[in-house]
Amino acid sequence: MTEATTHDPVSNLSPTMLEGHVAFITGGGSGINLGIARAFARCGAKVAICGRTEERLEAAAEELRGLGAEVAFQAADVRDAEALQASVDHAVSQLGDISIAVAGAAGNFYAQAEKMSSNAFRTVVDIDLMGAYHTARATFPSLKKTRGSILFITAGQAFKAMKYQAHVGAAKAGIEMLMKDLALEWGPHGIRSNSLVPGPVEGTEGMARLAGDTGDEMWKKAVPLGRYASTAEMGAMAAVLSGPLGAYVTGSQYMVDGGTGLVSTTHISDAVEKSLFAQE
Ligand code: COA
Ligand code: NAP
Fold first, then answer.
1. Among all ligands shown, which has an atom nearest to the Cα of 234?
2. Is 220 part of any domain?
3. Does residue 45 lie in a domain region?
């Protein structure tokens, strides 16, 4: 067990903090987004999750029900606006109007900008940026009724250039601006719009993809706090931002990254280059 996994930040939040709230979380079947779903469930919210894989959603729903939450899910690809709308409609019919939306679904892989196909670049932009827009649009009628909140899960690549992540940086930076535009446009409806920017998080698919070839230690050393975060730490911050504690917070980017955004990660890109692209 590491410092990150033994620490239970959600236990510091009230178990009734999100009572009466209905959350809809894309990508909620795994990783950071499941950590957010767990935190919401432990704070008393009803939780709907969405992703492409039925079995993954079923397993996550079972776990969330074990935490005492009412749970709904319907699989959808966030690139498909109609399917996502159907998943949102299903959630509303089962749990009630959504008051907290989380756009967390994403795709990532290392690829050289000049060599990846147009479809490879487009795929990440479609999942991350278009998926985030589809999530915002599909949940808007509910959020307007509930004067709710939308939280976008972005990444440091939105702010800090990183080799072999051009597609990811472009998509996540686009989401950051979408977040701000919606804060302005939907503020008069009482809807809040913010982003959470995780640093490297332990045990996630994202870090398996980013650190798989170079090892975790190099990444941990690049974090001023010297360790990976836990999914629970992301969940706790998401609950704070999405619930009553965040009532006056909108248009804001929350770096929950252990300070990673402040330091250079060029040596990591160099190691990735050596490991993945040295022969090319
Ligand atoms: N390097 C270069 N190109 C790649 C690639 C890689 N490692 N992985 C996929 N691609 C390309 C494919 O070749 C394809 O392009 P093409 O049609 O020109 O050949 C394009 O990307 C789409 O790939 P495909 O596998 O059809 O996409 P998908 O929609 O099934 O899956 C991904 C989307 C590729 C993002 C997949 O990795 C995924 O599902 N990821 C979700 C989980 C994840 O990434 N988690 C971490 C979040 S931080
Ligand atoms: P993850 O477990 O792979 O999370 C991605 C989720 O999105 C999965 O549940 C996946 O489920 C779903 N998804 C992917 N493509 C989808 C699509 N087209 N339609 C619907 N759902 C889709 O990875 P993670 O590492 O926890 O990442 C979660 C979020 O945190 C992402 O936004 C990522 O960019 C961000 N982030 C992660 C880190 C990190 O350290 N891991 C750091 C910074 C930011 P299916 O495959 O079943 O669809």
1. 2
2. no
3. yes
Closest residue (by CA) to atom 40 of ligand 1? 107
**Ligand 2 proximity of 258 Cβ (cutoff 6 Å):** no
Cα–ligand 2 centroid distance for 197 (angstroms):
13
Query: Is residue 51 in a domain?
Result: yes
Q: What's this model's pTM, rounded to 2 decimal places?
A: 0.98
CA 106 to chain centroid, in Å, comes to 8
**In this predicted model, what pLDDT tens digit does every residue of 145-164 receive, in sequence order?**
999 999 999 999 999 999 99
| Number of domains making up the chain | 1
Whether the per-residue pLDDT at 226 is higher than 90: the answer is yes
Residue 144 belongs to a domain with what CATH number?
A: 3.40.50.720
- DSSP string computed for 50-87: E-S-HHHHHHHHHHHHHTT--EEE----TT-HHHHHHH
Q: Does any domain span residue 222?
A: no
Nearest-CA residue for atom 32 of ligand 1: 107
